[in-house]
Amino acid sequence: MPNDLANSLDAALRQRARQVIPGGLWGHLNAANLPEGYPQYFVSAEGCRLRDADGREFVDFMCGWGPMVLGYRNPMVEAAARRQAEQGDAMNGPAPVLVELAETLVGMIPHADWCLFQKNGTDATTACVTIARAGTGRRKVLVARGSYHGAAPWCTPSLAGVTTEDRAHLLHYDYNDAASLQVAAEEAKGDLAAVIVTAFRHDMGRDLELPDPAFVRAAREICDVTGAALILDDVRAGFRLHLGGSWEGIGVRPDLAAYSKAIANGHALSAVTGNDRFREAATRIYTTGSFWCGAVSMAAAVATLNELRRLDGPAHMRAMGERFRTGLAALAARHGVGIRQSGPAQMPLVLFEDDADARKGAAFCSAALRAGAYFHPRHNMFLSCAHQAADIDLALQAADAGLAAVARMG
Amino acid sequence: MPNDLANSLDAALRQRARQVIPGGLWGHLNAANLPEGYPQYFVSAEGCRLRDADGREFVDFMCGWGPMVLGYRNPMVEAAARRQAEQGDAMNGPAPVLVELAETLVGMIPHADWCLFQKNGTDATTACVTIARAGTGRRKVLVARGSYHGAAPWCTPSLAGVTTEDRAHLLHYDYNDAASLQVAAEEAKGDLAAVIVTAFRHDMGRDLELPDPAFVRAAREICDVTGAALILDDVRAGFRLHLGGSWEGIGVRPDLAAYSKAIANGHALSAVTGNDRFREAATRIYTTGSFWCGAVSMAAAVATLNELRRLDGPAHMRAMGERFRTGLAALAARHGVGIRQSGPAQMPLVLFEDDADARKGAAFCSAALRAGAYFHPRHNMFLSCAHQAADIDLALQAADAGLAAVARMG
């Protein structure tokens, strides 16, 4: 918010919102959880630039919390969406683009023999669990402690309104700890339906961890031995790390996978992909929604996936992420500020040494924001194909201001 | 499908889809569940007309299973959506239109002091239940036998992949039976969190029933006495029967209500509205999604609600529904075919006497389809503001052909 609160449109909108929306805003987009100065409302966006209600422009490192993988208002995607919107969207059945999209995904993702579409990442992870239970006739699901798989009662981080029974059949392991996975699998005995794992470890506020290949292979083996489904929750990372699924680099393939966020460059869509072992189970579960055959988001998805392939999106984002990471490390050294950078380069996290109360992260982000870059102090950030070297360099200038602010804290 | 299957694009698309989508299509839009001749794929739509992949055009009585309340590709709604899309959709926070939409709903729906937005009807009904549990600190929810409240494990009609615990705290009553509601409430003892009720009874394949005012008042009273939340599931009926909520005619107001389908004329959106008793609980639950602040569907919703108000949409749809109902009754009498028409005129259902195996309904619908009208044999249909007298009369001509086919069955 600008210093002149009385003239801030953002502040005025927040005040009106507090009357008609509990807490001003639900969930993860609530700017009340961010350091001083972050805007809540945005009026426009293009490429990797975002403009807030008070007219401030930022180089954006959150990409709408992930969806924007090609950049805001990508011309190819928006043209495809507009062409479909001029024909029809939610009709009495799907448009032909449904088949084109399903064939595109099955052709692109090696483990996938089939797919289903929904609207939310949570729809996709929930459908994976339901299909695994239907296919195995078993109930227990192994979940990593602290992992985020969505906001339904079985997985939401807040227990308000959740009953014990909503989580009756979850057992927990520690991410990247194969031994703990084995213990949990044994606890499930003959009732193990699924192991669900995020593409990498991205628990809020702690260093990101790439998946240990030995851990991933152990998960695959436990599922092979017990007949349980290995579910890859690729909602957050999907299509940024590898177009064939985030574990293709490790060479391990899941039975079921959940995608959303980046699949249609911001149009609401999610998908489950599965192998033939679970095809019949997927026909037996009943999961549907009024907008799930909406053709506009599917046309946007086909355009997004084709464009990601044409550009080799993951490689571009990795290169831009590495440019940022290298530049930031040099700046931090120059300021004498200890930082920890973690995660895949396309989805980086920056934390500060000796920052238990998160004051350094907050000071860094607030100062960088004033200097024109939108970073996040606790959550992994997201690069896009719209980020070019000049944008990264601009963000590094803003980061320089942020590091100076941290250095001044002593 | 046209008789010449070899040249049917619809048949070709279905065959490709069977390879990459389990069962060809998930959920309620699967045309395999419909009588002979129904198309699966649609290439375009406008107003109340729908065109399938083989170029056949229909007067549509399903409106995309409800969303299309102003007609397909309504110019006012699409212009508003396009204007917002040219600024931004899913960004790092909402656009100002979020506040405008929330204020519109709170201004329009008398029980509503606040609202939340999601993507699916299921998101909204599930959030209502979670908020009710958070607000009361109790667990039991009373659900009518056979009512549809969405496709999550707690409410989906198929039990495949669902565990007993997913439904541990549901107790059942019979719709429109106040005594059964009282019995279920007593069974819940001090643990009653909510009573959830659809706007009217619309169980698939049986005559629709309007809500008995005495039953609705009993539900309100049980909640008042016990402190439980009365949840109106207005996902299917909302904005077609009354712009202030479907029970405004009865004069009973819920504590929480779920909306979706018609709220944005086909753009993916749902909403929870609530009163101040549950505001604090709504701040405590965690429910969110990557696309829930998408500004395009919100701009579409504002335009839809304003247009419904300007046109007095419910009155227009009622008049068109009554024209259809009266015309159909006269035709049925002329053909000597016994039919039962039920439900609100805006959302009519037509069933046949002596039709336990549903063959008459199938013959009626198939023949009407060939004559250019898209009806449904078992599910309530939907009128829209795009239906004008001439469209109804065209549909009646097709219904005439359908009734002739039934009469020929003897």
Automatic annotation (TrEMBL), chains A, B:
PROSITE patterns membership: AA_TRANSFER_CLASS_3 (PS00600)
Keywords attached to this entry: Pyridoxal phosphate
Entry keyword annotation includes Methyltransferase: no
Keyword Protein biosynthesis: no
Cofactor list: pyridoxal 5'-phosphate
Residue ranges the record marks as coiled coil: none
InterPro entries hit by this protein: Aminotrans_3, Aminotrans_3_PPA_site, PyrdxlP-dep_Trfase, PyrdxlP-dep_Trfase_major, PyrdxlP-dep_Trfase_small
Superkingdom assignment: Bacteria
GO molecular function: pyridoxal phosphate binding; transaminase activity
Protein family: Belongs to the class-III pyridoxal-phosphate-dependent aminotransferase family.
PANTHER family assigned: GLUTAMATE-1-SEMIALDEHYDE 2,1-AMINOMUTASE, GLUTAMATE-1-SEMIALDEHYDE 2,1-AMINOMUTASE 1, CHLOROPLASTIC-RELATED
Name of this protein: Glutamate-1-semialdehyde 2,1-aminomutase
Organism, as annotated: Neoroseomonas lacus
